[in-house]
Amino acid sequence: MPRSCPRRKLRHPGRPLPDIDPSLPQAYAGLDRFEARKRIVADMEAAGLLEQIETVNNTLPYGDRSGDVIEPLLTDQWFVSVESLAKPAIEAVEKGDIQFVPKNYENMYFAWMRDLQDWCISRQLWWGHRIPAWYDVDGNVFVARNEVEATRDYLVELAHFIEHEQGDFDTAMRLRGFNQLLGGTTELTADALTTMEKLGLPRLTQDEDVLDTWFSSGLWTFGTLGWPKQTPELATFHPSSVLVTGFDIIFFWVARMIMLTLKFTGEVPFKQVYVHGLVRDSQGQKMSKSKGNVLDPIDLIDGIELETLVEKRTGNMMQPQKAKAIAKATRAEFPEGIEPHGTDALRFTFLSQATTGRDIKFDMGRLDGYRNFCNKLWNASRYVLMNAEGEDCGAAGGDIELSLADRWIVSRLQQTETQVTKAMEEFRFDHASQALYDFVWNEYCDWYLELSKPVLWDESAAASAKRGTRRTLVRVLEAILRLAHPMMPYISEEIWQRVAPLAGKATGDGSDSIMNQPWPVAEQEKIDEQATRDIEWLKGVIVAVRNIRAEMNIAPGKPLDVLLTKGSAADQARLTANRRFLAKLAKLESITWLDNPDEAPLSATQLVGEMEVLVPMADLIDKDAELARLAREIDKQDKLIGGIEKKLSNESFVAKAPDAVVDKERGKLADFQTARRLLVEQRDKIAAL
């Protein structure tokens, strides 16, 4: 807006003129507007003033909350001419000074910016930044930074008018003298107001409208740093780096920030704009209080009882007639209320669903799952601390011997650090969270912690081997916590305070914080592909034995004798090097290499590559009891198969039922037939013992 406008006489300043009677005729006072219109038409017809009645179809706007017809009312408004503001804002994105992520949102930005209309910035609200415009008694307008500045502009024009139009030089000089006294002040003091009264000067009246919210928030990046003063904060933190926002306010907020910041500072407000989707409810509906489907993050974090949730969703509604339906839907969706999940679980859930630019259907199941992930990390840390606190973790030096598992997990850590860092830099927070989740849950917790036990719990293990495993446990966990901190700040900080001293990253007195630690950087020389291949072989054998236990209904804790055959020399070498790990994790009595596969007894078999894993079945099970159980299971499958075959052989069913229903029945039949075949194969193996 310009700092001041030329003096002008408003002939119609938006107020009733004195020579016009604005009062409503008594006959229509108090009537509903629609009834009053009918009465007016009838009165005009009775008075012979009605020429004709014509039916006109037009569109009426309705209030979304009240449901009432909205009546148009023309009023004076303040506008900003945007043509000169839009051009540099468009160029900033075209040149790459500002980048949108995902890039396709640049097209949305350009489409809006190249078809801009002048911007109405005045609003008739009770709150907001008041329009910086003041009026004198004649309606002349003065736009200024504050009331004193507006008053001084008014005095300049008034003195000029009195001197040149009225020829009163003395009064003009007194006004100019008072104007000089006001210089350097920002508000009218009591003395100044007294002087104005003596001079016969009425106080200016400020415009009652307020600035559009988006105009005020468009000043945010520099206005919060002390502008227009050239503060150290402004010099240090402007322009900022990344703006995170939803696509629905690219025009309302992002574009306005770019235009206003370039105008007033000559700089872009930020370098990148990360555009995320909207969080919708589980049905894909936009959350709104009128729909009663809003999920308050605090309720997801701390939990909320059902009745409190219902009251929260149905209280103070603009459309109370919807309260009953909303209460019913809420009770159906959350019959037990909402359990507490914690801040970190909620943050991680949102990150895991942050696929670029797409809306998120909020899923309570995902939130439950990531709460379990937080618990998994917490319990893993308890195991590490239980085995490392008060023990030699290599922080003071000493010989270090790394096991195969140690070398493998360190190698996988480097690869995970690379994955997470790349995903974060590309704003793929879903990929970053998934990479971290997979490493922590599937590799560090499920495998490495188990692989550490044979070393730590072996009284005959060398001190250097135990020291190496303890050091690996705490160092890898400490790096995990730094990777997790942007996603799970609270739990990572809590655990880090105890783990970091063991890893040599903190003093342990609580003065350090994970927030001040460097981001993990992968060390390529620590990537050990051979260790990865060896561990995958080890995992394959263990999983094969576990699968055989499940298929043959063998108790998980029962020690087994296992044979390996048909493998390579590398397989034999891996067996020799990893007997201890295999015996511990697969619960084995023995594991032997069989050179001649033809000498193998009747066994349950699994393949690991080309190598066979054999579990001899003799004496492992009660043959008669197992055959009886399998016979019952086969009979059960026969009945299920017979029922579906009968249904599918009914031509009327196949002809009338939807294709999806028929396909589903055929799929079930195939599943039952497969299950029966496997049961028969298992029965035949048992019978041959």
What is the topology?
Layout: H1 33-46, E1 79-80, H2 83-94, E2 99-101, H3 105-113, E3 119-120, E4 122-123, E5 133-135, E6 141-143, H4 147-165, H5 169-182, H6 190-199, E7 205-206, E8 210-211, H7 213-217, H8 220-223, H9 232-237, E9 240-246, H10 250-265, E10 270-276, E11 279-280, H11 297-302, H12 306-314, H13 323-333, H14 343-352, E12 360-361, H15 364-388, H16 404-425, H17 429-456, H18 463-484, H19 489-502, H20 529-552, E13 560-565, H21 569-577, H22 579-585, E14 588-593, E15 603-608, E16 611-616, H23 623-648, H24 651-656, H25 659-687
Parallel strand pairs: 2-10, 9-10, 11-12, 13-14
Antiparallel strand pairs: 1-3, 4-8, 5-6, 5-7, 13-16, 15-16
Helix pairs in contact: 2-3, 2-10, 4-5, 12-13, 14-15, 14-17, 15-17, 15-18, 15-19, 16-17, 16-18, 16-20, 17-18, 17-22, 18-19, 23-25
Can you describe this structure?
- There is one protein chain.
- The chain is α/β, with parallel strands linked by helices and 689 residues long.
- The protein has five domains: 79-125 and 211-276, no CATH class; 280-340, no CATH class; 360-527, Isoleucyl-tRNA Synthetase, Domain 1; 531-621, hypothetical protein PF0899 fold (2-Layer Sandwich); 624-687, Helix Hairpins.
- Helices cover 52% and strands 9% of the residues.
- The protein contains 25 helices and 16 strands.
- The strands form six sheets. It has a four-stranded mixed β-sheet, covered by helices on one side.
- Strand 9 (240-246), helix 10 (250-265) and strand 10 form a beta-alpha-beta unit.
- Helix 16 packs parallel to helix 18, helix 16 packs across helix 20 (529-552) and helix 17 (429-456) packs across helix 22 (579-585).
- The N and C termini lie far apart (94 Å).
